[in-house]
Amino acid sequence: MKTKIRKIVTFVEDTRTEMGQPVNPPTRRAAAAAVIENPFAGKYVEDLTELMEIGEELGALLTERAVAALGIPGASAESYGKAAAVGENGELEHAAAILHPKLGTPVRKTLGKGAALIPSSKKRGGPGVALDIPLGHKDAAFVRSHFDGMEIRINDAPRANEILVAIAVTDSGRPLPRVGGLTKDQIKGEDGLR
Amino acid sequence: MPEVQLRKRVIVVEEIFHEGGPVAAVPLRRAAALAVIHNPFGGKYVPEIAGFMEDLNPLGLEMAKAIVAALGGDPKIVEGYGKGAIVGQAGELEHGALWHVPGGYAMRELLGNAKAIVASTKKVGGPGTRLDVPITHINASYVRSHFDSMEVGIADAPKANEILLALVMTTGPRVHARVGGLKASEIKGQDGLR
Question: Which chain A residues contact residue B11 at CB under 8 A?
């Protein structure tokens, strides 16, 4: 593996009630995050190919971890998202190189279809910085019940020369969705939008 | 005593390969189970609260089992433990102290005859408050390599009338432990200390 990983952290959240109302079945989200060495920390490098390849490796590894943490087959996943936080000696473009060119293909391979854009966010920050991973339905971005986000943080990452990369996967939308819009049973799933 | 009302549960697993030194042959894992429950005593001073400890026993056991499951299912790999609580702002610190007995009971029940006192901490805080849960060896508190901690927290908890309960277990020493002291191999294991 090209990626030099210091640690991997997985998070699973089950929501059982919201405002006193039972959530049945509970909504469940998982995120898997890797803390990796930034090969380009502290210098300007024009060609970011190496980070793109790291993104490809992490797309497979982190999606598998997240799905395993939920205990579901990949095809049962409903929404997804990705995010990265670059340590202070790196640049935002390093996060972009990991997240955008090659990470998505192995994510979709693990989850089945995945026609929708994988929503993403990125930032630069120090250890303990909060990462808000946006979430959207994997086959139809306009499914309103699945617009969501998951906050994660790791107290000792990213260090200055590291990048924190995270992928979130759910088996459900928000706990008690009731703001209308496209529902998951209306998905056509052809264009990734509806 | 009131029924335990669970809003949300979170499982976090950290897998640590190195921290700048040699990559560990077996990565250290730290796992936490967090439960967000309604505080039945929020907003008022209730003199008699101790009966709630017994009500928390089944939840504690469920959390301990969830940690062991997240670590692969074998309680024998657990070497360190700790517990903690964050009380929402409508509660008092004493409500966090309700977790001492059931939290300890739950882990001992599952880990066999773990002899050491379960290290703990607690505080009052708002949503997103972080807690550094202290960790020591399960059979001998003085094992220096196993003095550790795990930072936990949930973005949307505890709300004012909630309590966030935490249990934490680890599978070994700090990843580059090298500051001497009592070793795990030297434990006599009679008094829970050495």
Answer: 10-12, 69
Separation in Å, CA of A33 to nearest CA in chain B: 9
Residue A10 has its nearest CB partner, among B9, B13, B154, at B13
Q: How far is A40 from chain B (nearest CA, A)?
A: 17
Q: In chain B, which residue ranges form alpha helices assigned H by DSSP?
A: 52-55, 57-70, 93-97, 100-111
Question: What are the structural domain ranges in chain B?
Answer: 6-186
Q: Tell me: the pLDDT tens digits for A29-88?
A: 999 999 999 999 999 999 999 999 999 999 999 999 999 999 999 999 999 999 999 999
ipTM of this complex prediction, to 2 decimal places: 0.81
Note the pTM of the prediction, 2 decimals: 0.89
Which class is B6-186 in CATH?
Answer: alpha beta
Q: What are the tens digits of pLDDT across the range B111-164?
A: 988 999 999 999 999 999 999 999 999 999 999 999 999 999 999 999 999 999
With beta carbons less than 8 A apart as the criterion, state whether B2 and B37 touch.
no
**Which residues from chain A sit within 8 angstroms of residue B7, using beta carbons?**
15-18
How many CA atoms within 13 Å lie on the side-chain side of A183? Answer: 6
3-state DSSP assignment of residue B141: coil
In chain A, the domains with their CATH numbers are 5-186 (3.30.1330.110)
Tell me if B14 and A9 make a contact (CB, 8 A cut-off).
yes
